[in-house]
Amino acid sequence: MGLRGPGARPLRLREEKRLKAEKVLRAYHAGDVKRAPPVAPWLAPDLTRSQRVIVFCESFQITSGPDIGKMFKLRGWQRRFIEDVYREDEHGVRPVRTAILSLARKNGKTALAALLALCHTFGPESEPRGEAYSCANDRKQATKIFEEAVASILMHPQLAGRCNIVSHEKRMTDMVTGSTFQALSAEARTKMGLSPSFVVYDELGSARDRKLYDAMDSAQGARANPLMLVISTQAADDHAPLSVLIDHGLRIKHGEISDPSFHLTLYQAPVDLDIMSEDTWRLANPAIGDFRSYSDVKRQAEQARAMPSHENSFRNLILNQRVAAEAKLFERERWKTCGGQAHIPDGAKVFGAVDLGATRDMTALVLVWADAADVFHVQPHFWLPGNIIERSHEDMAPYDVWVKQGLLYPAGEGTDPKLVARKIAELNGRYRITSIAFDAWRITELQRALDEIGCRVLLTPHGQGFKDMNGAIDVLERLIFQQRIRHSGNQILAWNVANAVATRNADGFRKLDKVKSSGRIDGVQALAMAFSLALIKNVKPIDIEALIG
């Protein structure tokens, strides 16, 4: 029975091509490539490893657009990426196992990813019975690279005869080497039996969690020289899976750590540059004016300037900045300027606030103290119930790391108010807690827990609606802007601040919105309440402006 799928007929001609290619490959891998004239230019013996990859990619034709049928020509920035990833060490081994290419949308990443996947299936990077995969957050996204690969190989005169394509399974096979290439989506639980030699993950920045990435990364252990390639626009927040990888790469580039197995190529525009500048656009769009439309970028920039609601989306998708499409309440960079070391001396008069979570929610307790220069030192404490590893995957937050660092307290099956009460009592023994602001949620349980251990701390009611939170948000914004906060760079609090989104009512009053926020905001909620208690509820109204500037 003949093979089925595109490229399967006529079978006689297909078999002749396959046998010819197989003969050449046997001679090539045996070191006798001169005995059989190579049918493929990437088999030339004088090429380096990266050059073989480049020659292979440039042996394909463009599959769509006005240049369809012309030979594909790698640009300088694409060549540099390939040279960095496929370089060999002194032992002839490719040290890079994880490669990140992050750039703005519509810069030709699909075509490049497809060609590299074909290189690991049919080309110089293939291995006997290798397994190459394109992964994405949904089936449709994962299929884009596969469909581009199909279009490319069917137009290749030397490789089309070796390829069998099973369209309904989104899989193709090299009949010479037995290698396969297949598109996968995010059902990570079905990927544990795979043994990938090459994986390209498309748009990891949009992933809801890192389950699929971890599944494919861990599955590569059986291969001698596997490669995980991520091509994506940046994620919106610091704790997304892609952001963690990019930050690791930046630490390597800055010389903070050494990891020769990891490579990062990042095209992004700094957040302080003019979004209307062509030079700014080019920093994140290496293909602009080439196969990335200049007029389209200009159009979107003008819309972002005219409609502020579009600016964050433009910054993220077109300038490749780590900015959420939803307008955030506080600027991440300005918060970082307040990251000086916080120190509250023993016996200091402090104010606090508790945002007591439900059964599975995070609970936050925050203390604030003003020094002689009216700079406020912040001390946060956090609890999280449930399985910490599972919760880390659910919320895309490194809870397990924060537990090891002592920033987060595990709280069992549910945060018991007694845990919080004991911490309040401990802190009250060290400092003088003037009062702690609280919302009505479960506060009777906290009061009872404090009474049981004899801790006499004043609890001051503080709502989380528009009436009470509007002034609290105003105070917090002003203190951040004036850099009159020291928070020691606490990672959980920084994450909360970066997630925060405010809702405004008809009267123009604001409150923090947990539904619209991109992640947990318990710490910033408690921080705003603590400042409200210290600067609004415990001073005369006439003194507020003097205290907060």
Describe the overall structure.
By secondary structure, the protein is of the alpha/beta class. It folds into 3 domains: 11-266, 3-Layer(aba) Sandwich (Rossmann fold); 278-327, no CATH class; 333-548, 2-Layer Sandwich (Nucleotidyltransferase, domain 5), CATH 3.30.420.240. It is 37% helix and 15% strand. It has helices at 11-29, 49-57, 76-85, 109-121, 139-154, 211-219, 241-253, 278-284, 294-306, 311-317, 332-336, 388-395, 399-404, 417-430, 443-452, 466-481, 491-499, 522-537, 544-548; strands at 98-102, 131-135, 163-166, 171-174, 180-184, 198-202, 227-232, 262-266, 349-355, 363-370, 376-384, 409-410, 432-438, 459-461, 485-486, 502-504, 510-512. The strands form 3 sheets. It has an 8-stranded mixed beta sheet, with helices on both faces. Strands 9, 10, 11, 12, 13, 14 and 15 form a 7-stranded mixed beta sheet that branches. The chain has a two-stranded antiparallel sheet with strand order 16-17. Helix 6 (211-219) links the parallel strand 6 and strand 7 (227-232). Helix 14 packs across helix 15 (443-452).
Concise account of the structure shown:
This protein has 549 residues and is an alpha/beta fold. The chain has 19 helices and 17 strands.
